[in-house]
Amino acid sequence: RRVDAAPQRGFAAAPHSRPPQPSRKALLARAQGLQHHSMSPQAFQATPVPPSEPESHAPSHTHDKSLAAFWRACPHFLYLPAASAAILECLWHAPPVHASLVSHHMEPWGLASAAQYTAFAILLSFAVHGAACAFLRAGLAGRRMQTRAPFEVSPASAAVRSTAALLTSLLYARLPVRSPSASWAEFWAATAVCAVCWDAYFYAAHRLVHASPWLYRHVHKLHHVHTRPHCFAAFYVTYPSHLLLEHLPVCAFAIAGAPRDVVAWLLYSGAAASFLDHSGFRVDDVSVPFLPCLRLGHALSAVHWYGLPLGLATSAGHDFHHETFRGNYALFFTYLDRLGGTYRAGRGCAEGCKGAAMRHGKDNLLEDGPLVAGKAPAVRRIPSAPAADQQARLGPAACAELTALGVPGRAHDGTLPAPAPGGLWAARRRRDPAQGPLLRAPALTAA
């Protein structure tokens, strides 16, 4: 039962008598968003704190604590990749298709190559997350884009599902690929063509699953439970989503004749870029280890130099997509989002209205309106301190006590610090269906 909708029978006054005044303890409890369970104004019970941090608002799945338990609960992560691998195997046993593959000097990518890529991607996901945890207060200080909740240090369920999704890449063992490139010119030309085609396909498919309510609910919605993503959220997906957005395009341009080294380069660099885009940090200005004068954004631009005219996607843009579920649908480049009117720069850039407001020390802003091309998204303002009329009613002493016991104050940079779980700011977060109805703190003026 919502606190703000609960009847105030505990404050009902007897006829011809002055209504009893709530005690200081009851006032502080109501201000912290505690739940009212009885008739007495002093009988409040603290809101239960969910086992996971409110970083991602993702439900805690008990079957995601180990791979064995995950596969028992989600067996389609085993039989659907097995069916996809069987289809690739049939290509080598169908006489017409086999003759065409042999004539074009194509051969299977091999179990060793697929296992190397799978192990690389899994280890890199843990390495990126470990680096983020290790340098959270050092090299990455001030570069986190969403600071209204603490960074999720131990996302166990996300790590298990991400690992299970990456293990499905073993089906690439029977993927037909052509012999390696004969020159650097052929390598970079084939890489640019495949990247542009994959980006265009990803933009169309990604925008389709967001536009269709049925596809979004059954295919892509799980990926967006992490509204403040970390690197494990990159592959926190359902297998149909993984098949649609990665396996199908990779198999398509490999069968179309992409060289072996181009396929490997796109897979390896794509996995690394996906982890960085979902890291939750502005990584473009992070110093490269052992080369402090070089930034990570410079290295990424040098590696993907062929995409500079088209505009390279950034972690700030994809973080904005996870926060608002709108815009920035492309994978590698930004030109399609710009042409389609869905491009948003995100936090930390001139076009990121929320990031700019937080950097300039204004009140915290939350998305509350539709995303319209060419216009700033509608926002609502949440004050970081009691309003002036509330301060006048409560008095400076009561406001100081409320601030010390849970009402967030203003940090030195203008952002709102993360209070203890169950505080007023935690009670005002968006409703999480997995955690039950949202318990809102009643107005201080009513108390």
Description of the structure:
This protein has 447 residues and is mostly helical. It is 45% helix and 6% strand. The protein has 17 helices and 8 strands. It has a two-stranded antiparallel ribbon with strand order 1-2. Strands 3-4 form a two-stranded antiparallel ribbon. β5 and β6 form a beta hairpin. α5 packs antiparallel against α6 and α7 packs antiparallel against α9. The longest helix has 28 residues. It is globular and about 90 Å long. The N terminus and C terminus are likely disordered.
Structural class: mainly alpha
Query: Strand order within the widest sheet?
Result: 1-2
Mean model confidence by pLDDT: 74
| Cα shape | globular
According to DSSP, the number of beta strands is 8
Which properties best describe this structure?
two-stranded antiparallel ribbon; two-stranded antiparallel sheet; 447 residues; 8 strands; 45% helix; 6% strand; single chain; mainly alpha
